[in-house]
Amino acid sequence: MPKIKVPKKSPSLDMTPMVDLAFLLVTFFMLTTKFRPEEPVVVDMPSSVSSKILPENTLTITVDSAGRTFFNIDGQSVRRNLLTRIGEKYKIEFTEDELKKFSVMTTIGMPAEKLKAYLSAPDSERKKMDKATGGIPIDTLNNQLADWIVYGWTAAITDEAYAKKKESGNELRFAIKGDGGVDYTYIKRIIEIFQQNKVNRFNLITNLQATPTTE
Questions:
Q1: Would residue 12 count as lying in a domain?
Q2: Residue 142 falls inside a structural domain
Q3: Does the pLDDT of residue 41 top 70, yes or no?
Q4: Rounded to whole angstroms, how far apart are CA atoms 49 and 134?
């Protein structure tokens, strides 16, 4: 009995859905990606062997090599609330545009009397002001950093989303990010300000280096 030959057909694959999916993914990332604003100060942090990653929802004090102090806290609504409180303390009335601009910024190192001019300035002018600033005052006679810490802390824990953050273990953290070449007296002063305002637990941010091996 003769064998029946089954006709051979080359398999075909319709790539149209795959192409559509690729373009959908590209479109999604283009529409949802948010670029982090440029930091006004760059610090060369010391290294350590700790591999602990700093979580979100952090109040960070940055100290550059010249001892200038900068402030940052996470959350747009938190930052708006913070700036409003700072304005009330120093008798500064911020516009809606200035509040909105501040809410999407990152680190800031302006004394209170220059805040309004800084927020109303164009990006190119703000970069010049960042280079020329002496940072947020931390001396005993004009300790503005203490106000930033207290009002930032208050704004964070009174934010509507804070209860859920705390339930998930993401409560507000405090951190110091100091340049490796800064005089230690500046870091000591930041620690004193933290402790004077009942902040006794905080992280020191460092660069990760390889864990030393023992032979």
A1: no
A2: yes
A3: no
A4: 32
How far is 194 from 141, CA to CA, in rounded Å?
A: 16
- Detail the DSSP E strand segments found in the chain: 47-48, 58-63, 69-73, 173-178, 203-204, 207-208
* 184 falls within a domain: yes
| CA of residue 133 relative to chain centroid, distance | 19
User: What pLDDT is recorded for position 167?
Assistant: 85
Confidence of residue 44 (pLDDT cuts 50, 70, 90): low
pLDDT of residue 205: 82
Question: Which range of residues forms the domain containing residue 187?
Answer: 57-208
Give a three-class secondary structure readout of 185-214. HHHHHHHHHHHHCCCCCCEECCEECCCCCC
Domain count, the chain: 1
Query: Does a structural domain hold residue 31?
Result: no
- Looking at the chain, the whole-number percentage of residues with pLDDT higher than 90 is 60
For the chain, first and last CA: distance in Å?
Answer: 77
Query: What is each CA distance from 180 to 38, 73, 112, 201, in whole angstroms?
Result: 21, 22, 27, 21
DSSP string for residues in 150-164: HHHHHHHHTSTTHHH
Q: How much is the pTM?
A: 0.76
* 38-52, 56-70, 186-200: range with lowest mean pLDDT: 38-52
Structure tokens at 9: 């057909």
Q: Which residues of 187-206 are buried (b: 16+ CB within 10 A; e: fewer)?
A: bebbbebbeebebeebbebb
